[in-house]
Amino acid sequence: MKISLPPPGRPNRVYPPGAPSLHGLASVITGVVVVCALYFGRAVLIPITLSVLLSFLLAPLVQTLRRLHMGQLPSIFIAVLFALAALLAIGGLIGAQLVQLAGDLPQYQYAIEQKIETVQEKTVGRADSLMSRAAAALQRVAPSKPPPPRPTGRAARNAPAVPQPVEVHEPAPTPLQLAQRALSPAIAPIETTFIVLVVTIFILLQREDLRDRLISLFGSRDLHRTTTAINDAAVRLSRYFVAQLGVNLSAGGVIAIGLAIIGVPGALLFGVIAALLRFVPYIGIWIAAILAVFLAAAIQPQWTMAVYTLILFIVVDVVAGQIAEPLLYGHRSGLSPLAVVVAAIFWSWLWGPVGLVLSTPLTLCVVTLGRYADRLNFLTVLLGDQPALTPAQNFYQRLLADDPHEAIVQAERLLREMSLIDYYDKVALEGLKLARNDATRGVLMPDQLARVNEALVDIVENLEIADGLPDRLSRTESADTAAALLASASADLSERHDSHKQAHSSVHNDAERTAVLCVPGRGPFDEVTTAIAVQLLSRQGFAPIMATHSGYRSARADEPSYQNAPIICIVTLDAPDSPPYLRNMLRRTREWRPRATLVVGVGGTAENGQEAGMGATGASHSAPTFRTMIEECQVAVSALHARQPTHVGGVAD
Length: 653
Fold this sequence. Notes:
Blueprint: H1 19-40, H2 42-67, H3 72-104, H4 109-141, H5 154-157, H6 175-205, H7 207-219, H8 223-262, H9 267-277, H10 284-299, H11 304-329, H12 337-351, H13 353-370, H14 377-383, H15 391-400, H16 404-414, H17 420-441, H18 446-462, H19 477-488, H20 493-505, H21 507-511, E1 515-520, H22 526-539, E2 543-546, H23 549-554, H24 560-563, E3 567-571, H25 580-592, E4 597-601, H26 606-617, E5 621-623, H27 626-643
């Protein structure tokens, strides 16, 4: 008896029964600690996060300057000065526009008051009239209570005295206090901006050193995986920020020009606000739209300006979101729409408005990290935009849910991008393998197995008239080799060459006159799999004949429907395992029909199929997929017509 010992220096680990639960509890505690650290350390983490994201945004500019043969330090300082100038320009522009808009508001006072009166009359006024009518009706129905008697005489003298109001006046503030009150709101943003710029400079200066330290900290044992993760996150975030900044600036510029043409005051201000708020997913631009529409509705007695403003925002948002962003980001940004909304709620709860703006890039970092860290992979599944299930898994899941309609809808959607043979090979066949594995393990009850087969029959029947991309069936090298050998062995080489060339160029026409006997195996899904093979062979011009497993076993060798088929396809998902019944079936077929071409499939890899078929008969063709099965049939057709070029029917034994 051989006893395996643990490697030296590595003791055996015995996990207690409660180890998985302890591991889950440790994960929950770790998550709670991380969230608490993010919440209570936001005063420190927000500037650092802004610096990291700003470095991602400025990295392409720094690299461009470096390509122009500028030094590292000058390139970084130029990029940071450019960012600072942009921030100061935006701040000054917003301030100037606010001052101008505040100075112009008295000009629109009459229109604003008239519009407010109209709104009150249409809403509050009607509500007041309705309430007055209701109160009058109630007074007529219910008797009114008499007023309480007023105290007189001694009772009036003993009544408590009414307290006198007391006013407290503070001393007038000094000029220093006024300056402190005026500058205190601006001190915190200026301080944060200074910290962000300084940290950004150091991050850009030590970018390679920080990358090496992260690799050493998180993945020095797997340099390839860690380097790929860091590069993927850096490239993805840089591309996301640069592309979104370009789209937002373009959208803000178009909105500013459009509002100026419409005549809305402060058009440049609303353009800047729209460009900034577009960093907030989904709702950012509509906050700016509401402000602009309210102002346009207030300053004009009519509603024309407000309607034009709303139409402008709708058109810009549709063009930017449905045309510009897919062209720049691709059709997928890495996050699902639900993940973007949930992330916005979560980060705004943690960090307020700054978290709302940073929610998408921060979540994108987490999802990218989850693609390479096994313990964080669940975040990629929950928040990423990749399908949670493969098409084959989705196909089988719909069968288990007894929902063939959804499977048919999925098939019609996939057939817009692939051919029917590819759909059957990559989706249906893989799903049938999953079903067979569950049936082999005994987890499918007989009634559930019957429902799955009925659903499969419905799907195959509905795909009878389905149109996908054109099937591109390539003849294998074995077909050319077999045809060439048979042609070279003929007596009249030139005549044989011409007939072989004609047969080689018209395989589809030859297939129209070739019968193929399709026999299912004994597996639970082999009959449906055989029906798929019959459907595909019919589409390729063959004349398939479908038998039953029991009928084929009890059939005589001289039965006409079996005797006239020069090609026999045994279709079973058990081919990779080569069970005893399949080996006996192949041996009996070879004894009955020694000259027929025998094709065995489907359900395994090429090696498994070759082992199951060739090992049992010594002369069978393996077909692990439907495509290879049809190609093997075409090979057999080429060989048949190369041997008998003048024969137009099937080959008899």
